[in-house]
Write a structure and sequence with these properties.
Order of helices and strands: HEHEHEHEHEHEHHEEEHHHH
Strand order of the largest sheet: 4-3-2-5-6-9-7
Largest sheet: 7 strands, mixed
Helix content: 25-40%
Distance between the termini: 60 Å
Structural class: alpha/beta
Shape: elongated
Oligomer: single chain
Number of helices: 12
Number of strands: 9
Strand content: 15-25%
Radius of gyration: 21 Å
């Protein structure tokens, strides 16, 4: 079954009475070149288990199953289960779990389904859950080697932005802290059914064994980062003071000890400078 063929997809979906849901961000891939490339890039291979999120009609799932020892796909939409039963028939190394990935006990799933395997994540993520899903995998320090996902192009640029550049934001700093991000390739909007209004990109986050920087408190660091990037038109002095409800004198003193100019903006700071500022701001804690 050619799952990249529009006529085939429409026929399968019609047989099962399936209609696309805008609220679930459902856009299925019809470009035959994308999924093989994603499957190759994600690291699927012998001894590897792949956790897929939102398999859709199973076009990426099939490619992953050709390469990996096992594929477990988590699908929220119950209506797609009979569709996947048809499109993935005969693939004995694929398991579909009907659940919400944001509510799933992922640690338990990985330990039960992928014992003794290296684990990678690969997914065509619905745009509305991109950041929550990625940050959950990173913040919970789930035992995965890489996270390879297709996301909206603007989200890809934001997630992979390096500290010190204009596109960097709070989520960029968090991603850099936990992983080494990279944009792998672009995906035009014409690659999907139905066609979205934006282009996409495939990114890969290589999960770090140790954080990118040394900080005294992760809780305080991310609280400070959120505040510093919270009002992008303001200086790091003003945005941090406002966001943390600190006095400007207190923040100014911390900036001076950290060797950071008070008129700097958060996106101009390196990870090391952000770490030093956090440590100096919360020096008494």
């Amino acid at each position: 079954m050619n799952l990249s063929d529009i006529t085939t997809i429409k026929s399968v979906l019609s047989r099962h009475g399936f209609n696309f849901s805008k609220s679930l961000g459902q856009n299925f891939l019809i470009n035959p070149d994308i999924c093989p490339q994603m499957a190759d890039e994600c690291g699927a291979g012998e001894g590897v288990g792949v956790l897929e999120i939102g398999p859709g009609v199973g076009v990426l799932t099939v490619e992953l199953a050709k390469r990996a020892d096992k594929v477990v796909s988590v699908e929220l939409d119950k209506r797609l289960l009979p569709v996947l039963s048809e499109t993935l028939a005969g693939l004995d190394n694929v398991k579909i779990i009907q659940d919400d990935i944001l509510k799933t006990d992922i640690q338990k799933l990985i330990s039960e389904e992928f014992a003794g395997m290296d684990v990678v994540v690969c997914a065509n993520l619905p745009y509305y859950i991109t950041s929550p899903v990625i940050m959950r995998f990173l913040e919970e320090r789930l035992p995965v080697r890489t996270i390879t996902v297709m996301v909206q192009k603007e989200a890809a640029e934001r997630l992979c932005a390096a500290p010190g550049c204009r596109a960097c934001g709070a989520v960029s700093a968090a991603v850099q802290y936990f992983s080494e991000p990279e944009i792998l390739f672009q995906v035009p909007r014409t690659s999907f059914l139905p066609q979205p209004n934006v282009d996409s990109a495939v990114i890969q986050l290589a999960v770090r064994k140790e954080p990118a920087i040394q900080i005294q408190s992760e809780k305080n660091f991310f609280k400070m980062v959120k505040a510093a990037f919270g009002q992008r038109r303001k200086t790091v002095l003003n945005s941090t003071a406002a966001g943390l409800s600190f006095g400007k004198e207190q923040v100014a003193a911390a900036l001076e000890r950290a060797g950071i100019a008070p008129n700097s903006r958060a996106e101009q700071l390196t990870m090391e400078q952000l770490a030093t500022l956090s440590n100096e701001l919360f020096i008494d804690e």
